[in-house]
Structure formats: structure tokens, C-alpha cells
Design a protein that fits this description.
Serine Threonine Protein Phosphatase 5, Tetratricopeptide repeat; 307 residues; mainly alpha
Amino acid sequence: MRKLFLFILFAIPYLLAAQTAEDYNERGIEALDSNDLEQAIFFFNKSIELKEDFDISYFNRGYTYLQRKDYSEALSDFVKSIRLTGNDTIAKYAFTNIAYLKRNKIKDLDGALNAIDRALKIDPHHVRGYHMHGLIMNDLERFEEAIESYSKALEFSPRLSDIYYDRGISYRQLDRLDEAIADYTRSLEIDPTSSKTFNNRGFAKQKKRDFAGAIEDFTEAIKIDDSAYSYNNRGFAKYELGEYESARIDCENSIKLNPENSWAYHYLGLIYYELNRKEEACELFMRAVNMGKEDAMSDYREKCTRP
């Protein structure tokens, strides 16, 4: 009851001060900046009640719903803001947000592509529009087109680490490993704190059979983020180099951090087999299979069922 009373006292000055739709919209922005999402929606609702065709308030309310993870309401408001607006900037960002929602939350890649194409038609220099276009192309496994879109974004803004990273992903999908490594390296020059970039550069090096280089990258990833994923990756690279005892420690650490990591059980099985611990290895292969890693069955059959 005391919290409710304090909330009412806090809200009253805003209600007295706000007289127009524009005033309520500004109050909503202030609440949003303070991460008070419910208060922000309250003010944007008041703004729209006073001015039913207020495109900016629909956009802002849509963004607030997005932050609140109310995706259907967010999508509805972004669509309304586009229908109402004559402002290209509002329309561009509304289409971009719709593309984000359809790609990341609704899983409608065709709808996402249509939305981002419309945003880019409004602004052919829209950096984040080209980035989103690249992400969608990558999802559609149209990797060459993804690379073209990322490259276009980087022409306009060449110091965005995440776009170099994402272009590296597409290069790696095409087995253009040197280009992937170059992009991961450029990304790390801009942001040296990204464990996922070290991990992915390590994968690319591992695929080139540069296991020592891969281990260095996985080690850097562990320094940044002491994760099961990074220990798992380094353990397998050490296995490939024949460093079985050190690989065992990494995979066991991975399992300690994430007991549901089927990959680590599979890799640990391979390591135990090389350490002449066949019975334990076979148990680990089957455990990985039972956790959903079906390719561990081939190792079980090869190593555990033959005389």
C-alpha cells in the first residue's frame, strides 16, 4: 500500500504538467530513459488518447513494448506508426524494428527481408539496415549476399566490430577461412573483449589445422569468459594435437561448468579412449548419445563394439 501511495505521489506532478499529446510523449520518453516501462506506456497511451494519429507516440510505445518483450503489441505499433507517418526517419526505423522482430522473435525471414528492403529503399545509406540485411541473408544461407550487405555497411561505418564479426561468420560458412580470420582479427582490434570472436577465430584456425593458434584463441576466450563452451573448444583442439592429459582437464572443466554439455562428454570419451580408458570412454559416448549428440554413436560403434 505504501508503494502504491508513493507511486501516485510520483505520478501526480507529471499528470498536472502534461497538457498535450506532445507533453505526454515527452514524459513517456523520460520514463523510458529511466527504464520505467509501465510508466512509459501509461504516458504514451495518454498521448495517443489525445492525438489518435500521433505517429511518434505509436513508434515510441512500440519500442517500449519491444523492451518489455511484448512483441505482438510492438509489431502492431510499429505498423501503425508507418501508416500514420510522413516522416522518413520514423518509417525507416519502424521498418528496421519490424525486421528485427520478424527475424529474431517471430522467425519470419521473408517478412523480415521485406521490411528491411523497405527501410533501405527509404535510406540507401542505412548502416544498420545493411547489417540486418546481411544477418537475414546469412540465415537464409545466401552467404555471398550476406557478405555484400556487410561490406556495404562497413563502407559507410568501418569501425563496427560486430559487423566484421558477422561477415567473418559468413566467410567461414563458405570455407573462406583466411578472410574469416582477417575479419575476426579486425573485430578484435576494435573490441578485444569479445570471447565469442576469439572462439570463432579459433574455430577457423582449427579448420585450417592450426591447432596451436586455435588453442591461443580459446585461451584468450577463457580469460574473458570462463565458460564451458571455451573449455570444450580448447579441449578438443588439444586432443587434435595429441595433448590428451591437458585436453582431459579442459573437457572435465567444461562439464563441471555445464553438466548438460553433450559435446564435452563426446570429446572426453575420445580423450579417455586415447588414454587407454576404454570402458569409461564407451560410457561417455553413450551418455553423449542419450543427451542428443547422435554422431557420438559412430565412435561408440567403432571403438566399443568391435573386438
